[in-house]
């Protein structure tokens, strides 16, 4: 009866078409902050995407990660031979660039759980009635999540090898490199790492770095480098955390406080 009204109908309740049965998903409130469940209606991950995690290693035997661990197609695991001719023996799932061996997790100089925590956020196996969910951990069907490549730079005895790790990732198909580390002193950098970032980018990849946890706008490399994607941390309500670095050089912000993984 009103001019301009074409039709009247109820607004029905809606649910996301994609639901996950992982028991600890409700603890991951930071996912609600980024509307991850809405994103899952479009994609839950792509097994053709390899994400390299450069950190203190990844527990590749973890029951909520195993199915999404990258495997080097050119290597026969455990035979003690450099099958793919890259001068690394049995680099089946990545490499320990700090200690120069294939021990991918252990008693790290820094923290032997950080890399596994980051890997879980990226690609814990979804919809497996176990543990948590990963942003791109798949939908529970076989081979549906992104693949995690290990690049260990905090070793049992040494710290280092970051540039080599980036080059390895680029040469072995990684298209995203996740880095939650940076130099301790503002304004300092190593040219070899910048060159390696450029190389990774030249392969069509993206190199992501934490902006830093000093609560200021000082130049913290490698995140400050223009070839990197610098990520600052927010609380789940979108406000900047008290500890996160900030500045015009930061490319994007994401939840980074009490992230459950």
Molecular structure report:
It is built from five helices and seven strands. It is an alpha/beta fold. The model has no long low-confidence stretch (mean pLDDT 95). The chain has a seven-stranded parallel sheet, sandwiched between helices. Strand 2, helix 3 (114-123) and strand 3 form a beta-alpha-beta unit.
First-last Cα distance: 55 Å
Low-confidence sequence ranges: none
Report the strand count. 7
Gyration radius (Cα, Å) is 20 Å
Structure classification? alpha/beta
Q: Strand order across the biggest sheet?
A: 2-3-1-4-5-6-7
Q: Enumerate how many helices there are, as a single number.
A: 5
Characterize the main sheet.
7 strands, parallel
Average pLDDT score:
95
Shape: globular
Q: Strand-and-helix sequence, N→C?
A: HHEEHEHEHEEE
Note the beta-strand portion. 5-15%
The amount of helix comes to: 10-25%
